[in-house]
Design a protein that fits this description.
By secondary structure, the protein is of the alpha+beta class. The protein has six helices and twelve strands. It has a seven-stranded mixed sheet with strand order 1-2-3-7-6-5-4, with helices on both faces. A five-stranded antiparallel sheet has the order 11-10-9-8-12, with no helix packed on it. Strand 4 and strand 5 form a beta hairpin. Helix 2 crosses helix 5. It is globular. The two termini are 33 Å apart. The structure holds biotin. The site of biotin (BTN) has 20 residues, from helix 1, strand 3, strand 6 and strand 7.
C-alpha cells in the first residue's frame, strides 16, 4: 500500500524519472515524489524526448515498491496513473480529459499529458518502479511538428472562457493524492477489477475505429474496451483480439485520439 507522500521540488533536473531512480538506488522509500520546473533530458516513451520548457509544464515522478503484486502487473500502474491525472485535472480546474489507451490524456483529440513508467529488477524480482507524469500547463503554443496534436491546461481553460488560475504545485499535489487512492485500490487485487468501469467510462477509443501498428503489419479494428489487466480488447473481422501495452501503437483513424 502507498502511505505518506514526500514532495521534493527542484529548479532543473535531467529527468525526474532519472532522479527517482538515483534516489531509489540510494535506498529512498516508496512515496518519494520529485518534481522540477525544467527537465534538460526529459524522456518520453519508446526513447523519444519529452520537452519540458521551464515553468510551463508539470514534470513529476514517484518512487513505488509494488512488492504486493506480480511483475506482470507492474505495467498496469501506468493505467492507474492515467486515471489519477484525469481525475485531478477535473478536480483542480474542471477539465474533462479522456484517456487514449493505454495512458495518454487527450482533450478534443489533443494530448495534454504523457506518462512513462519504468521498472528496475534485482535478483530476479522487482526492485523499484518510477512512474513519471508530464502535463502541459501554461504552454501558449507548441513547436510546429506537434502543434496539431498537443494542448495545455491554459489553452483548454481559455477555450472554455474559464477564469481558473491554477498553479503547477496544486496540480502536482492533486495528481499524487488522487494516484494514492487509485493505486491502493489497484494494489489490493493487482489488476483493474475495481477500476475498470471507471477507466472505460473515460476511454476515448471506446467503440472507435483504430489502426493497430505492429512491427510487421498494420491493420484496422474496432476498440471495444479493456480487460482487467488493462489490455485493449479489439474486434477484427468479427473476432475479438487482445492488444498488450507496449506491443503495438494504437492510432485513431480520424484525428489523434
Ligand atoms: C510520453 O511519451 O507520452 C511519456 C512522457 C512522460 C514525460 C514525463 S515528465 C516527468 C517524467 N520524467 C521524464 O523524463 N519523463 C516523465
Amino acid at each position: 500500500m502507498l502511505g505518506e507522500i514526500i514532495y521534493e521540488f527542484y529548479e532543473s533536473v535531467d529527468s525526474t524519472n532519472e532522479r527517482i531512480k538515483a534516489r531509489a538506488r540510494d535506498d529512498a522509500g516508496q512515496g518519494l515524489v520529485i518534481s522540477a520546473d525544467e527537465q534538460t533530458a526529459g524522456k518520453g516513451r519508446v526513447g523519444r524526448k519529452w520537452e519540458t520548457p521551464s515553468k510551463d509544464t508539470v514534470a513529476t515522478s514517484i518512487l513505488l515498491k509494488p512488492y504486493e503484486i506480480p511483475v506482470e502487473s507492474v505495467a498496469t500502474i501506468t493505467i492507474v496513473a492515467a486515471m489519477a491525472v484525469r481525475a485531478a485535472l477535473e478536480k483542480c480546474c474542471g477539465l474533462k480529459a479522456e484517456i487514449k489507451w493505454p495512458n495518454d490524456l487527450v482533450i478534443d483529440g489533443k494530448k495534454i499529458c504523457g506518462i512513462l513508467t519504468e521498472m528496475e529488477m534485482r535478483d530476479g524480482k522487482v526492485w523499484f518502479v518510477t512512474c513519471g507524469i508530464g502535463v502541459n500547463v501554461h504552454n501558449k503554443s507548441f513547436p510546429e511538428e506537434i502543434a496539431f496534436k498537443a494542448t495545455s491546461v491554459d489553452l483548454e481553460l481559455a477555450k472554455n472562457n474559464s477564469t481558473c488560475k491554477i498553479h503547477r504545485s496544486e496540480i502536482i499535489k492533486a495528481i499524487w493524492e488522487s494516484f494514492k487512492e487509485y493505486y491502493n485500490v489497484f494494489i489490493r487485487t493487482g489488476d483493474l477489477t475495481n477500476l475498470r468501469d471507471e477507466y472505460q467510462a473515460h476511454l476515448a477509443n471506446s467503440g472507435k475505429r483504430v489502426r493497430i501498428e505492429a512491427q510487421e503489419n498494420s491493420y484496422e479494428a474496432t476498440a471495444l474496451g479493456i480487460n482487467n489487466k488493462g489490455e485493449l480488447i479489439i474486434e477484427v473481422d468479427g473476432k475479438e483480439e487482445i492488444i498488450r501495452t507496449g506491443e503495438v501503437s494504437v492510432r485513431g483513424i480520424y484525428g489523434y485520439s
